[in-house]
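Would you kindly consider the sequence and fold I have copied below?
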Amino acid sequence: MAEKMQRPGRIIAIDPGAKRVGLAMSDPLGITAQGLETFETGRGIELIDHLRALIEGSGATTIVVGLPLSMAGGEIEGSGRARALAAEIREKLGIEVVLRDERMTSLEAERVLAGGDRKSEKKDVDRLAAVILLQSYLEEVSQ
């Protein structure tokens, strides 16, 4: 029988984008994911500084960065940006970073939000995509 991975504490997930960054955080037990306010780039604060504040305030030990891939699983334009972000986070914040396939998270988020009979704002889609990304990661590490 495979040994369960030990839960590392709070985990932050990032659904990276050029204009907005969806964010989610796990509960202290690492069971559920909750959406955080979507980070808007170009608002005077750098993403790394924002993440530093989140880490310090929550005690997060890991960041999961969504890795955009094509439907066939190959790297696409956004893949390089996600890898660069992951490297910058590791270097500047000294925290464990996990890259995770984010295929279909935004489509799933749009589908879920469209069921509410309201026009979904992009920031809502980005936040929910981060929640979906983190929840799938939490479920995987709990097995």
User: Anything to note?
Assistant: The two ends are 11 Å apart (CA to CA). The longest strand covers residues 20-26. Confidence is low (pLDDT under 50) at residues 1-5.
